[in-house]
Amino acid sequence: MILTDAGPLVASLDRLDNHYRACAAVVAALPRGPFLTTWPCFTESMHLLHVRGGYRYQAALWAMYSAGRVVLHDSTPDEAVRMASLMEQYQDTPMDLADASLVAAAESRSERRLFTLDRHFWIYRLSDGSALEPVPGR
Fold first, then answer.
1. Rounded distance, CA 81 to CA 87, Å?
2. CB under 8 Å to 3, separation ≥6 — which residues?
């Protein structure tokens, strides 16, 4: 499993997305396995997919979930506290709830790789001071 941000989930379902080909190439290069995401990222993806293609795009994401190709990480109460702390720490970046949920999930699952299209993940630090490893890289 690879921790996955909303951007790649949306791009992988919207062939008109500017990042569709790049995401498809990354998916082809990754070991087979489901995408792991958080509820805030899944919610953000659903919103963006609705704006782009209506329910049929949202249905495609639900189908990925039903088929086990997308797994949802359930945040713990401790992770929720950590998300609030992260959002305060990075308020000038800014960090939204979806980003904070990914950092908190990465910490709790000891996962460093993150499939994302966002450059600001290079700035964020995990509780041990290490950085996430965004895929694709710089």
1. 10
2. 36, 37, 73, 102, 105, 106, 109, 111, 113, 114, 115
Assigned token pair, 69 = 């190709």
Helical pair 97-109 and 77-89, crossing angle rounded to 10 deg: 120
Residue type, 61: L
Tokens of 11: 């791009």
User: Both tokens of residue 53?
Assistant: 């293609």
Instruction: Specify the length of the chain in residues.
Output: 138
**Packed helices 39-53 and 6-13: angle between N→C axes, nearest 10 degrees:** 30
What is the value of pTM for the model shown?
A: 0.91
Residue 8 and residue 117 in contact, taking contact as beta carbons nearer than 8 Å: yes
Cα separation values, 4 from 42, 88, 92, 97, 106, Å: 10, 23, 23, 14, 10
Percent with pLDDT over 70 in the chain: 99
pLDDT in the model for residue 124: 95
